[in-house]
Amino acid sequence: xxxQDTIAQVTALQRAVQDQSRLVSDFLRANRDTMxxxxxxxxxxxxxxxxxxxxxxxxxxxxLNASLASLQQAAxxxxxxxxx
Length: 84
Hints:
By secondary structure, the chain is an all-alpha fold. The protein contains two helices and no strands. The chain has helices spanning about 5-40, 50-84. The radius of gyration is 19 Å and the shape is rod-shaped.
């Protein structure tokens, strides 16, 4: 594999990481909107469904934030490789 091939692959990986970061960010935004909707619409539900739903959505948000952090680390590592 030539240096040009390696650079092309790193560039493609950087684009893929950026695309995934955008997708995760968009999903995170939608998840936050859903949490706001649940708070507004299900406040004080008889069987605690609002709290169950909010707990699940909060766990989703935590996972999405972890994914974004991992993608950022990947982007940083790719930047270092590209700089070599």
